[in-house]
Amino acid sequence: MRVLMFGWEFPPHITGGLGTACYGLTRALAMQGENIIFVVPKAYGDEDKRRVRLVSAEDIEVSYSSKNLEEFWKHIKYLEISSNIVPYVDPEEYRKIMEHSEHIGVEYNSNTLKSKFKFSGKYGHNLMSEVTRYAITAATLAYNEEFDIIHAHDWLTYPAGIAAKMVSGKPLVVHVHATEFDRSGENINQSVYNIERRGMEVADVVITVSNLTRNIVINRYGIPENKVVTVHNAVHFNQQIDQEFTRGVNEKVVTFLGRVTFQKGPDYFVEAANKVLKRTQNVRFVMAGSGDMLNRMIRRVAQLGIAPRFHFTGFLKGAEVNQMFQFSDVYVMPSVSEPFGISPLEAMRSSVPVIISKQSGVAEVLKYAIKVDFWDIDALADSIYGLLHYEALSNFFIKYGQEEVNNMKWHNAATKIIDIYRNVTNR
User: Fold this and answer.
1) CATH 3.40.50.2000 in the chain, residues?
2) In the predicted model, what is the mean pLDDT of residues 234-262?
């Protein structure tokens, strides 16, 4: 089956789990015989193209005079949203982005009849404009390509999926990796919510990465139950985890790895670290990642007086992530609202015992992980302390956790999605 798939990022150029999931899924689909055209706003040339045909939206010529796009242009106006949404960025980082954008610019090349849009491929201050241009490009691509089904990942690509469906008449599957309620709690960005809801309404099938997310889609977006299907994420296995690294410190290492933003609960990690350090000093805590709460976390660590035992690495990717897991004795994911959470699987694959919040999708499929409520700092601190000081407990979760995660393959997720493709194309 030929699949026209829209994503916003693809390894190695990723900001989190979305790009990782897209890579694992497309690779598994291709290995089962599916023909994947994966579209990103901007391709850099160093992506892994062995399993998919990677298309950069920047390379697509859009014809303004095309009568075939006339119907699409009539309906595109709902995307003209006046908004400076910058996901996961605090005011200080936002100012830096604005200053940087003045130098790089985001423009498009054009002549009388045709143009090629330029994309940053990032999450900058002009994000909504890029989402709109991406949708316009998708309409052109859908008119010129041969495919059987459309698959759009997360809200940034839903307008593109809608546009492709309008032009081609092919069925649309939208894949919900996170919702605006996960990212922002109850203080949602209405423009993003509207795009999410519209994408789900237009879609023939909505795939969610957990039952937790499925319930949000049904109850908060009003999507019929029979239209929403859960397909849990998995983990991609490679040889890099066998690399040996020199740690350089004698203390135990407890790691938080992810976006330093409300959704991930970094403040609960800091408070738990403070409680653990009051009981033992033979430990270091690491917060690996970037986001809108980073500066606040740095200030809180300083205020608590635990800075000598607390380290901030910034954003890690690729081999750096594997190296961080090699250094770690415990991995913690205290997410407030986590649609799934691939990083605990990566940690378990690297023989690291994990502590996850009960408010995460991955908690639905993991048995050999310690699960606590994100807000229960005492339980989180006790769990960290226990894994650090009771070797038998740690070894138990390492041994059986590895066996469990070895069975969580993208092949299984891809098989379920292929069944979804077949069902929707046969209607």
Assistant:
1) 2-234+410-425, 239-405
2) 78
List the one residue out of 308, 313, 320 whose CA is nearest residue 273: 308
Reported pTM = 0.84
Tokens for 77? 């106006």
pLDDT tens track for 103-130: 434 443 444 456 788 887 777 667 888 8
Q: Which CATH superfamily is domain 239-405 in?
A: Glycogen Phosphorylase B; (3.40.50.2000)
Distance CA 321, CA 397 (A): 21
CA gyration radius for the chain?
A: 22
User: CB under 8 Å to 402, separation ≥6 — which residues?
Assistant: 348, 349, 351
Rounded distance between C-alpha atoms, residue 387 and residue 380, angstroms? 11
Q: How many residues does this entry show for the chain?
A: 427
Measured distance CA(368)–CA(257) in Å, rounded: 19
Q: Residue 342: which residues within 8 A CB-CB, separation 6 or more?
A: 17, 20, 21, 233, 235, 362
Arithmetic mean of pLDDT, 5-23: 86
To the nearest whole percent, how much of the chain has pLDDT over 70?
85
> Which architecture characterizes domain 2-234+410-425 according to CATH?
3-Layer(aba) Sandwich (3.40)
Of 348, 343, 383, 346, residue with least CA distance to 360: 343
pLDDT at 244 over 90: no
Residue closest to 326 by CA, chosen among 210, 213, 418, 247: 247
CA distance 4 to 174: 12
